[in-house]
Records
---
Amino acid sequence: MIQEFLTTGLGAALLLKERVDKEINKLQEHGKLGKEDAQALLEKLKTRGQEEEDKLKQHIKEALKEAINELGLATKADIEALKEDK
């Protein structure tokens, strides 16, 4: 399930990138956006995308930790603690 979610997200991100690139190229062709402005816009979008990806990863980690706690599953730390008690 998580793999499907990540694959779908990656596919959507690639599709969005293609669309953004296409639209920026159109703006450049029509003289509405210069090359430097296009590069700046792409960098800004890339930075924003990275920030959003980092937030999403953090949310996924928190959700997984919560699910593990609710299910009562042993964590790596729990297993290590048991090994040390021996």
Note: DSSP finds three helices and no strands in the chain.
---
Amino acid sequence: MQDKRILIVGAGIAGLSSALMLAKNGNDVMVIDANENWEITGAGLTISGPSFRAIEALGILSDVMAQGHTHPGIKVHDNHGLHLKTLISPCIASQTGAALPGAGGILRSTLHAILLEHLSRLGVQVQMGLKCTSISQDLLRPDGSVQAQVHLTDQRTLSFDAVVLGEGLYSKSRQHLFPKATPPALTGQACWRVVLSRPENVDHRFFYLGGSVKVGLTPVSNEHMYLFLLESIPHNPHRETAELQVILKSLLSEFNGELSSIAQSINAQSHIVYRPLESHFLSDSWSTGCVVLVGDAAHATTPQLASGAGMAMEDGIVLSEEFLKAKDTQEAFHRYFLRRQNRCNMVVQNSLKIGQLELARASAVEQAQLVESSLLELASPY
């Protein structure tokens, strides 16, 4: 299928990846996003070998490598800073046969800007501040196809051959279209993220495991890294923005050595992102008629395997591939679901298992083993 009119709802990584691939394949793509501007929430993104494979398929590899950071893998430490093991991330062959980087990082805002630039080159602009209020589907067309009538907040009603919903974890459209779907569930953990200047010796991802919290450092450029911290929050306390830097520095106080000095660089001006972790997986179907879910709207994972963005990019790639093979949208969406179901579920479930090990304060070695086996599984084709 080509020359289809397709609406992408949500300009996050899943939505933009889907838009880019479907536009490359000759479809007429429209992208809308509810936000009024491009203030990107979040901090940095870790890039695994499988995610680099998806980045190459999107056609943005050179930009990501130039503006991000690449490194061999993870240096695992205990909570006292003792180096235990270096996990070399599996390298995957590129389309040319050369090895792609095994691991890397990039600022979320930088990746977002790269995707927008590549979409712009195809003549696709994101329409900001525009929401979908309802979707109705014509199931009785004479040719047997399905078309969606989408009602927008600017009072327009437009027709599309397909609607791709990349609205994220709290997708209201998912709640309407899949009313029996289990809502996102709190995992008992929260994630703290903050972008900081990168010391020269932080040339890999660093993990600090086995303590009361899990801490990691990921280089995202030549100058910057982001620090993440996973904390147990059984009661999900409310925290004011003004107190975040005090709490984060307190949580880091059990660490000695370099991590201690890094913690001292956090101050009231640091842009700290704090978020209780939630997860969900839609197990039965990700589509109804000519409407389909991508990314966190279908399979929101926690960050333990650093694969949320990678899975979102893969969704857009696989969806576009199945569009080229299928006779109609329903077949394309079903085949897309079959290809993505087990892989995305593994990421969701293994990330939750690693989180449970963290909550149980399992040994750093046990945690690292599950990370390593999961990354090896992710290296398989999608």
Note: The chain has a mean pLDDT of 92.
---
Amino acid sequence: MPFLQINVGHLDRALRIVVGLLLVALAVKGTVGLWGYLGAVPLLTGVVGTCPLYSLFGLSTRTKPAQAPASRSST
């Protein structure tokens, strides 16, 4: 299913997790309003590695894995 494929790269994931944790922590502490709980969205997408909006628009920040060279068979 292409909707559930990993499409978030390492740096993107790390930033999402940090920002999500920060927003949720600020909301729990009462520093920001209830909107801070929206930090759960980037936190979840960072942990899972899949962003539904990226899938919808065909985007990806994940690097493509290097492909092995095609094996040549000698005949």
Note: Residues 2-57 form one domain.
